[in-house]
Amino acid sequence: MSTVLDRLGQPGADFLAERHLATLSTVGPGGLVHVVAVGFTLADGVVRVITSDGSQKVRNVERDPRATVAQVDGRRWLSLAGTAVVERDPDAVARAEELYAVRYRPPRMNPRRVVVRLTPERLLGSRSLLTGD
After folding, report:
1. CATH code for the part of the protein at 4-125
2. What H or E segment, with its residue span, contains residue 43?
3. What residues does the Pyridoxamine 5'-phosphate oxidase N-terminal domain cover (predicted)?
4. pLDDT by residue (tens digit) across 14-58?
């Protein structure tokens, strides 16, 4: 099954494996874009962001599932846009925490932790990070 991630070249995959923060953009309650800095992981074809239940990003996703994660480093950048859901299942949270610990560091304890899981539907980025169409 083909996905938008198939356009990600090896340099793009390497870029996403590097330790960088990113931005998560969601639609705020008044319709304006809500952008926050986040750590994220990409595994199993989905983007995961760990956060606290009840945060603005969680409320935004539950109201309007459109979301984008973007990572920038100098002239290199990638943007993954798609549909997001909030996962509260303990196994889903544990999986996201494990992935986060590998990419960044073990996350602090948070009994209110949830996962914003984004399924990429559109991939944009620096030409050098993508394969030809």
Report:
1. 2.30.110.10
2. strand 41-43
3. 14-123
4. 999 999 999 999 999 999 999 999 999 999 999 999 999 999 999
